[in-house]
Amino acid sequence: MSKVIEGIKYADSHEWVKVEGNVGIIGISDYAQHSLGDIVYVDLPSEGDEISKGEEFGAVESVKAASDLYSPVSGTIIEINSELEASPELINQDAYENWIIKVELADPSEVDALLDAAAYEKICE
Amino acid sequence: MKYYDKLIFEISREGRVGYSLPKSEWEGLTSSLSEEASGIAKNLLRETPAELPEVSELDVVRHYTNVSNKNFGVETGFYPLGSCTMKYNPKINEEIAHHPAFCGLHPLQSEESVQGALAIYYHTARVLSELTGLADFTLTPFAGAHGELTGLMVMRQYHLLRGDTKRTRVIVPDSAHGTNPASAAVCGLEIVEVKSTANGTVDTNDLKGLLDDTVAGIMMTNPNTLGIYETQVVEIAHLVHEAGGLLYYDGANLNPMLGASRPGDMGFDIMHINLHKTFSTPHGGGGPGSGPVGVAAHLVDCLPNPRVVFVDGKYKVKSGKMKVESNHSGGICQFGNSCGRVAAFMGNFGVVMKAYTYILSLGKDIKHVGPIATLNANYVKESLRDAYYLPVDTVCKHEFVFDGLADKSTGVTTLDIAKRLLDYGYHAPTIYFPLLFHQSIMIEPTETESKETLDDFIDIMHRVAEEALADPDMVKTAPHTTPVRRLDETTAAKNPLIKYRDLC
Asked: Domain locations in chain B?
């Protein structure tokens, strides 16, 4: 079954966020990569873009479907994982190791409202 | 099947010909002619001979026969591709459309010399109006997605003509065909998603929360992409109309409605029809299609030009800002209010001819099309539900969706099942659509298949389900009998080889 990791937060739209200081590191869950199948393209935003919670910031395309990515937090994108441009399949290999964007958090309290590992595991059942 | 993968250029041998012609009296003369005498500028003349294949007549015949044997189509086997209505296309359609009186026409001929063709155009629009309950049709859009764009242009034009510029949002169900939001985006409109209920139909409570004075309309297909009839459609029409929006009907799923129910009566204002699906013209592999757009009476003026009208006993092609007295509806057409032109000339006339032939050859029996398509789909669904998981358990229309195998314990996925079906000589169903489920298999048998064909397919689907448990590795590596085995889809999507030379 799909893997979840303790200590990070999850959105019900299957993104995860790991907080380091005032930066949120965002990726998609193992359940999401598994459901999508082989990922062939990641549509990344630009560094410096402002995003708000729930807003679409990119898309992941697999051989099955294209799915929008929704930001679990608000803030400014300070880094994108440009390795995914050439190697989108990294997400299939390890969805938690291969993050997609880093966001400077505008409101760190938003993270608290997200799901923990146990609650997220439940919605994936 | 004999394996054959040559290009005609590969079997070419220098000097080999498939013809015998007398020696040309002009040989050597044309290239020495002056620019003035030949009428062709020197810099446009070819310096080296064209690289054409040099083959005998037998080479050509064998080559194309072998290549055509690699095709799969409705004429080679069962093709249950959901949402595509792969029904048999009767040969009489081709015979009529290929009559020299029609296929020899030129689009720039004068109106007087093409009265017959214009009559067919006009009467096809009339009969489509009758079958769908809408006031009038344009036949110019080239295919379904083009029809959607045209229909949305009509929707936007209607709002703009009333000076209502705020309506820029289009509501699309989360189960919709992907073309719906894509067409709305191309038309410059914003897409808002409305959720489905647990039984797969539009959630009217969610819809109510989305309706306001910025909504241009809603795009729906009925039955929806799960093959389920939207029983709330009259209420939905009422809600959307009350909010000032229009209802668009995606005609991709019109087949089960033929003879049973009409989009116009359900409350839809605009729709497109895929003539190549519902009205039996060949499609797949690139068409050609045809996507006529029909509208209710209050939108007729917004239809694209040119349009065929019947005035004083003659068929005329009208476009631009011309105003003419009457056509069938007896009113005045305000051609200046049109949403514009969407196609060169009159669209795919040959496809219209075939569809018109189909409609006339069925005659009153057309009312059996929808019910038999519905019966066939339910027969296959009920026969397979023991082996495949049926997420929405209700009577379906022309198609239905399984969410993978009932027993998924061996890890065999929908993709594996689709690949395994190829080994048994079936075209795979539509897979991984709609997106509501992770392992969607969408099956549409159509009305033209016999019970024996359906029974054979049901047997094979059962056998594949058994194989998935008994020998999962074999199913996961299928197909095993096709000219090429399982393809690396990731690499194919990321680094496609699109030139033959790259393969060598």
From this structure: 1-70, 106-300+344-363, 367-494
